[in-house]
Write a structure and sequence with these properties.
Elements: E1 2-5, E2 8-11, H1 16-34, H2 38-53, H3 63-71, H4 82-101, H5 128-136, H6 142-157, H7 161-165, E3 172-175, E4 177-183, E5 189-193, H8 196-208, H9 227-240, H10 248-261, H11 266-273, H12 278-289, H13 296-300, H14 305-312
Antiparallel strand pairs: 1-2, 3-4, 4-5
Helix pairs in contact: 1-2, 1-4, 2-4, 3-4, 6-8, 6-10, 10-11, 11-12
Length: 317
């Protein structure tokens, strides 16, 4: 039986146990769809905070509730950035879309909440010299060799942090070269060659840790570290190397940048990054490299030297 209240149509046939069961099913769907271990946890935390604003009953949520939560100050009293608002809305919208498909609500109460406009940040990719500085500050210890293997693997494969840290011994196969299987964003499984420098760094790290590759089981992790801890170590290394503000995802940007600098085509970089569309890669590279202006020289040739100097504010050549 349906009833309408304010700006949301919902149902009174969904007891609390039904909502809780469907929340678990929703998170399982998010995990399957995204191929990420982090996203379901992040979405779950946002949903829990949102549910607290509506007394724990999802059926009581209105568009006004969603807007207030998305754009409101966080637990620490800070105003959210556009990217934070976007993630909050994505989480709540995903939940209510699932609830609608399951017949628990008739409409998605997030539909009329506008997403903020935000200019994506310029991707940061390290130059070869900067990457060398970063690797040089890593200690020659078990931890240092592990982190060196992670960084080198990221730069040679373009994989995301969680995709690398989720690699298991059974994901590596040898067929002449070494290949890795990895489940990437979107739930797609990829099989690509593992560049030899990355494989050598992994072998060195495992030997130093007393876990040689040949002694590992298929489900044993190659890197015994969680993503948050690796981020903390990377920040420390970056500060020592004079590369403050470096993020794990910047290593993926570095992979694209170095390939591009070495003459790789957009198609090659797109294949490396696993983008579904070359247009996505082209936009990605344009933001990182800047857009080339191929016509300005021809335009300048139409003017006299005196005009150019006067126009640019110069008094003499």
């Amino acid at each position: 039986r349906l009833f309408k209240r304010d700006d949301m149509v919902t149902t009174d046939l969904a007891p609390r146990t039904t909502w809780e069961g469907n929340t678990g099913a929703w998170l399982a769907e998010v995990a399957s769809r995204t191929g990420s271990k982090r996203t379901p946890g992040e979405y779950s935390r946002y949903l829990a905070r949102f549910m607290a604003t509506v007394g724990g009953d999802p059926a009581q949520a209105t568009t006004a509730h969603v807007h207030a939560f998305a754009y409101g100050a966080g637990p620490h009293g800070r105003e959210p950035s556009p990217s934070t608002v976007t993630v909050r809305l994505a989480a709540i919208s995903s939940f209510y879309d699932f609830a609608r498909r399951m017949g628990l609500v008739a409409t998605n109460s997030t539909a009329d909440v506008k997403y903020p406009k935000a200019r994506p940040p310029v991707p940061r990719g390290l130059e070869v010299e900067e990457l060398q500085r970063l690797l040089d500050v890593l200690p020659d210890t078990v931890v240092g060799k592990r982190d060196r293997a992670i960084i080198i693997t990221a730069v040679f494969t373009g994989l995301r942090r969680q995709e690398i840290l989720g690699l298991k011994a059974g994901d590596l196969t040898r067929n002449g070269a070494v290949y890795y299987n990895v489940r990437v964003k979107g739930g797609i499984t990829r099989r690509r060659e593992l560049p030899q420098p990355a494989f050598n760094a992994i072998l060195d790290a495992l030997e130093a840790d007393g876990r040689p590759l040949e002694g590992l089981g298929p489900e044993d992790s190659l890197f015994n570290i969680c993503d948050v801890t690796f981020y903390a170590y990377l920040r420390k290394y970056a500060k020592r190397a004079g590369l403050g503000g470096l993020k794990p995802h910047d290593l993926r940007h570095t992979a694209a940048k170095l390939r591009r600098n070495n003459g790789a085509s957009i198609e090659d970089v797109s294949a490396l990054l696993g983008h579904r569309s070359i247009a996505t890669t082209a936009t990605y590279l344009a933001r990182m490299e800047g857009e080339e202006d191929k016509e300005w020289r021809e335009l300048a040739d139409n003017f006299t030297v005196e005009f150019i100097l006067r126009w640019s504010g110069c008094s003499q050549p």
